[in-house]
Design the sequence.
């Protein structure tokens, strides 16, 4: 049977690794290529780069990083951040990315999902969703709202409805990122993850809030996620990828233990 | 242009850079080519691919690279199929109801699963159990897992062509081979160390099972 995946997310700004808390206060914490290599040799199942570069030459910077990593890391690479067209997706694929994450641009123009799916295959299109909890309302019956532009712009759009629409348009996977949990290290948003995982037939990657190994266990079991995304807990050296996988394995979660 | 030791067949079936990078990592001099002459001249051939069977077959026919591949097979050159490359080496695919190359007897069927919690495509890491020893698969250990992304599964007619199986609800064939042709449903180029090992083995294989 398929193993549950441990995925590390590297936020890249101006070619450096950055980490934010609740989407603000980013700071540099190292070289993304070295970190990618370190996690790969320590058993990581998949790697995600999120480009948060703001400068105008952003595309060249992230393409260089992806290319350098693809030369030495032989697991699936996924890249997101500012992908707004099939051309963006194709450039990143040629640089060595397997999967492309779309987020804000797909909310603004949902056809982007179908266009990318046609060009690079459904399985390579990942719909990344930034979500915050709101009151249940007529507009947002699930009680969760889609937010775009790096957590700055609430869209008054229901998260569950958008996940289903994204799947219908051809997304091959979902990243469920809780803004409320992001950077808190207090655990993933289990209720949200489970709700979306039960609603769609494509794999769900839980994101935001991991601080302890038990958080991964919880979201891969109770939260029904197919994969758990980690960032700070491995970036700062508090935990290792292999240590997390051993923890999960010892508790009966099927993870890849040979690398 | 001198013939490359390894030709990676390009037939508009996805991004092949990762296959070339992985080959180079294990010291294989591989070039991506859609030129039938280059494919005919290479010492060994990798036949990769992601995408749909219908458009892949059209592209193989139009470019003449499909015929070059068949010639190489008859000529005894070692050939490695990957993912869609494996699938279109069988006779027929349910995907786009396509007649395929017919190098290995059998067909390709979509996963039909009873458990609603199991997702299609079958995407992620899964174990591969070798059921028939083969030089290219010689390093695979019980705990080793490989990276898969596919919605269709190969169903070879003859059990002796099945080299390895994996489990997704039921068992399915995850590697097959016949004479100088060997193929994996998983992606060795995305499967870390164990995948690189497989590519290295292919680079040293003489084409005899």
Sequence:
């Amino acid at each position: 049977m398929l193993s549950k995946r441990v995925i590390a997310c590297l936020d890249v700004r101006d070619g450096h690794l950055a980490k934010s808390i609740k989407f603000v206060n980013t700071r540099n914490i190292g070289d993304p290529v070295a970190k990618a290599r370190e996690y790969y040799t320590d058993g990581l199942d998949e790697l995600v780069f999120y480009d948060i570069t703001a400068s105008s030459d952003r595309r060249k910077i992230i393409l260089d990083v992806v290319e350098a990593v693809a030369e030495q890391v032989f697991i699936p690479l996924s890249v997101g951040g500012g992908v707004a067209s099939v051309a963006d997706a194709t450039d990143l694929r040629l640089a060595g990315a397997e999967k492309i994450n779309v987020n804000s641009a797909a909310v603004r123009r949902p056809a982007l999902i179908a266009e990318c799916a046609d060009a690079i295959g459904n399985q390579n299109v990942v719909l990344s969703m930034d979500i915050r909890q709101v009151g249940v309302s007529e507009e947002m019956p699930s009680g969760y709202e889609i937010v775009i532009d790096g957590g700055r712009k609430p869209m008054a759009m229901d998260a569950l409805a958008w996940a289903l629409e994204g799947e219908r348009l051809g997304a091959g996977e979902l990243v469920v990122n809780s803004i409320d949990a992001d950077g808190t290290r207090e655990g993933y948003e289990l209720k949200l993850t489970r709700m979306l995982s039960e609603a769609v037939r494509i794999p769900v990657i839980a994101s935001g809030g991991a601080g302890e190994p038990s958080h991964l266990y919880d979201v891969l079991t109770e939260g029904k996620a197919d994969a758990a995304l980690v960032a700070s807990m491995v970036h700062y050296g508090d935990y290792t990828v292999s240590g997390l996988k051993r923890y999960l394995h010892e508790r009966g979660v099927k993870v890849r233990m040979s690398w | 242009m001198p013939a490359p030791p390894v030709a990676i067949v390009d037939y508009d079936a996805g991004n092949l850079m990762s296959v070339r990078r992985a080959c180079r990592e294990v010291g294989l001099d591989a070039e991506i080519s859609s030129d039938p002459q280059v494919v005919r001249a290479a010492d060994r051939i990798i036949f990769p691919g992601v995408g749909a069977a219908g458009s892949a077959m059209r592209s193989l026919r139009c470019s003449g690279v499909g015929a070059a591949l068949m010639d190489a097979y008859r000529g005894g050159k070692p050939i490695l199929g990957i993912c869609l490359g494996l699938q279109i080496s069988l006779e027929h695919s349910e995907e786009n109801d396509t007649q395929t190359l017919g190098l290995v007897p059998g067909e390709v069927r979509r996963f039909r699963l009873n458990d609603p919690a199991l997702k299609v495509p079958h995407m992620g890491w899964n174990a591969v159990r070798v059921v028939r020893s083969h030089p290219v698969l010689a390093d695979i250990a019980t705990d080793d897992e490989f990276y898969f992304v596919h919605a269709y599964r190969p169903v070879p007619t003859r059990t002796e062509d099945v080299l390895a199986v994996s489990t997704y609800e039921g068992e399915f064939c995850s590697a097959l081979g016949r004479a100088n042709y060997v193929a994996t449903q998983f992606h060795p180029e995305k499967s870390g160390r164990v995948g690189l090992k497989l590519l290295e083995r292919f680079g040293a294989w003489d084409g005899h099972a």
Observations:
- The longest helix of chain B spans residues 192-204.
- The interface with chain A takes residues 14-15, 17-18, 21-22, 25, 50-51, 116, 119-126, 141, 143-145, 147, 149, 151, 167-168, 189-196 of chain B (CB under 8 Å).
- The two ends of chain B are 31 Å apart (CA to CA).
